[in-house]
Amino acid sequence: MSVRATLPDLDTLDFAALKALIVAQHEQLVSKDHQLASRDEEIERLKLLIAKLRRIQFGRKSEKLDRQIEQLELRLDELEASRAQQGAPAPGPLAASAVNRAAQRARQPLPAHLPRETHKVLPQQEACPDCGGALKLLGEDVSEMLEWVPEHFKVLRQVRPKLTCACCDKIVQAKAASRPIERGIAGPGLLAHVLVSKYCDHLPLYRQSEIYAREGVELDRSTMAEWVGGCSRLLEPLVEALRRHVMNAEKLHADDTPVPVLAPGKGKTKTGRLWTYVRDDRPWGDPRPPAVWFAYTPDRKGEHPKAHLREFTGMLQADGYAGYDAVYEDGRVKEAACMAHVRRPFYDLYAAHKSAVAKETLERIAALYAIEDEIRGRSPEERREVRNARSQPLLESLKQWFEETLGKLSRKSDTTRAIRYALGRWDALMRFCDDGHLEIDNNAAERSLRTVVLGRKNYLFHGSDAGGERAAAIYGLIGSAKLNGLNPEAYLREVLSRIADHPINRIEELLPWNLAGELARNSSRTA
After folding, report:
1. How far is CA 232 from the centre of its chain?
2. Residues 383-442: pLDDT tens digits?
3. 254: part of which helix (H) or strand (E)?
4. Distance between CA atoms of residues 489 and 192, nearest Å
5. Which of 3, 24, 343, 512 has the largest CB neighbor count within 10 A?
6. pTM to 2 decimal places
């Protein structure tokens, strides 16, 4: 126990001794005040950290054994998908080849209880091409393909009659229709459903296998993994065309998010990154189609965004990640900061302990967003005029208030850090006032990452770096379809039904906005 200090007998002290005693007591009080202030700052910092962690905490804690099984399942998925994607050379410009013939299991007949839809494919010749004689039926070849129609399976039977000439025994037969994956049993609708279920609805393949088994269709997880790999290879030219379209913009939104990736041979996960680059100028009335391109990297080094943006020239709206500094160095790409990133720490501060400074900041920023709501959809010139007249004075007032408030705060407080982040990027924050093409924030990029974050909650991690690259490719096609108002499953079904035979020099015809009209007509016919 501490011993409480006692005062000396004040009646016995002279003036000088009394003065010295008062000075000593004052120094002790000042020291105690500093300690208390430091303790209060630490308490508030911990409260803020706990509040943040509670908001981002989600899901139940998986049991160790369940997690190990899921790791092995996903790792196996990635190995088999990689084998399908890289195992055999492509025979044509866009045609997918059969994958690892030796490794394929004996194929089981498709379930007899499923409805059959038969298509007869007759040869184009009406007479014998050799002698002109009449053709008569000799036999037929029948092949089956498992297809998915929304909410149920069906089997498409392709019947190719063999016709023989009555005069010269010449045999005539139509050529077999191509399939997305050569010799594969999956139709384009089923492949699209598997891809969208995995990358949009966040259902790992082993869960899909369980769902399909309830329909009486046994689809092995490893079989679907091969389909995913085959589709990824088939779609590579289309993904590259999507990248070119995105990088041809004058302004891009960029962001990234961590994704756990299974480290081969270790049974543990490492942290990879998924980068998103969004082209979307609809807020100022640009008629050009929006799109998003994703890229995967095994780490977050600054060399990656520099490589991704090597062909891009224009404005980049992004957060304050230092890795973008190398992109801005030569002036080819100019920085536009994000007001949402400025706002976020103040929101956290207010949510944690109702900070008066945070509340004032949020109200001032809300006034800026109210102006943006009014001018959304107007021309760049109108947006610039309104921002110069109304937003710029509000921003200048906010900056002045930030600078005045800093002098009243501790240097180590979270509020100080939030203010210094904003002031450190002030020129980039003000840039949207002078350019009506820019947005006040980078929310377009953040919205594109939502599907990644939701998927991360469900399947926890990717099975390999190759799996991350496949995910990035499909995320880009699905995200671009959504930006253009398309059902991503209907879009991928149409693409997969065509791409194997489509000329590679016209691959842009299969981008979402180029198929939008046809998909709308198909939808109206089936409605």
Report:
1. 16
2. 999 999 999 999 999 999 999 999 888 888 999 999 999 999 999 999 999 999 999 999
3. strand 251-262
4. 6
5. 512
6. 0.75
